[in-house]
């Protein structure tokens, strides 16, 4: 295999890998003013947004100490505002999964 073929193969592999990853944003909305206002956002690439979102939600709840429904609503808002619409369903499912586990 010559150098050009090798470079082409590597480029195709990188493009393929990028298609399989979804990016989480890192800019907290300006209008967040509750318990999450001082939170730091991180970018994460995921091949399983549901599990990664669920883990991240649990970490935020434990770290910040969500106490009431208003805090939960703000957390949902932050996740929706920070992430692209293509993973909003994963965010919804992760929250519902945690809520149903909590009620069991």
Class based on secondary structure composition and strand pairing: mainly alpha
Helix proportion range: 55-70%
Topology pattern, helix = H, strand = E: HEEHHH
Q: In angstroms, what is the radius of gyration?
A: 18 Å
The overall pLDDT, averaged over residues, is 77
Distance between the termini: 59 Å
Low-confidence stretches: none
What fraction of residues sit in β-strands? under 5%
The largest sheet has its strands arranged as 1-2
Function: Transcriptional repressor that regulates multiple aspects of plant growth and development.
Protein name: Transcription repressor
Subcellular location: Nucleus
Keywords: Nucleus, Repressor, Transcription, Transcription regulation
In words, what does this structure look like?
It is built from four helices and two strands. With about 100 residues, the protein is mostly helical. The protein has a two-stranded antiparallel ribbon with strand order 1-2. InterPro entries: Ovate, Ovate_C.
Task: Summarize the helices and strands and which ones pair or pack.
Elements lengths: L2 H17 L2 E2 L21 E2 L2 H17 L3 H14 L5 H16 L1
Antiparallel strand pairs: 1-2
Helix pairs in contact: 2-4
Features:
single chain, about 100 residues, mainly alpha, two-stranded antiparallel sheet, Ovate, Ovate_C
In short:
This protein has 104 residues and is mainly alpha-helical.
